Amino acid sequence: MFKTKLNYLTISCVCLTFCLIQLAQSGVVKSPVISEDVKEDFEREARLETEEFLNAIFTAQIDFFNKLKQSLKPDTKRYKDIEVFVQRLEQAKEEKELEKKDVMYWETFQQFNKSPLLLNDAAETGMTDEAYQKALTDNGFKELLKNFFADVAVYFWKMAKASGKVVETTMDEYLEQMQSSKKLF
């Protein structure tokens, strides 16, 4: 996944930004490396981007599974499992607190990780393998995956840009301080 130099740079910028924030918060660095304003702006932007990213994923999965559910008989186990899955995703999407939203999604993912919603079990779906595969395809499974990977890429790019902005602003502030005090190092 991270095979290009740009991907390595993106991950490095994000990690550096988080490390600088953690060092400043933990008191390891005596004078703040990152100003409070820059830190608050980054945290606000990161929270907003993360919330938008999660909600986009929730919406896409809700739409897909609601379509898939229509291909199933209402009395099947898979139909009922999908109803519960969609209901939990809708609750997570409606949650305003980001940490709770993240936990709700993770718990839902973990629970349904054991239930193969995308794999056919004739006893759960009432369908043959071919019929279930067709239902997945007809209801947009390939588009769901393609859009998911695109959303992940966009999210990482936005986070890398925000991290780069923090590094740039922090370096500018540091260089200004150095210039004003005429100390080189």
UniProtKB/TrEMBL annotation:
Name listed for the protein in its UniProt record: Beta-N-acetylglucosaminidase
Species the sequence originates in: Musca domestica (House fly)
Signal peptide from the UniProt entry: 1-26
Superkingdom to which the source organism belongs: Eukaryota
UniProt keyword annotations, A-Z: Signal
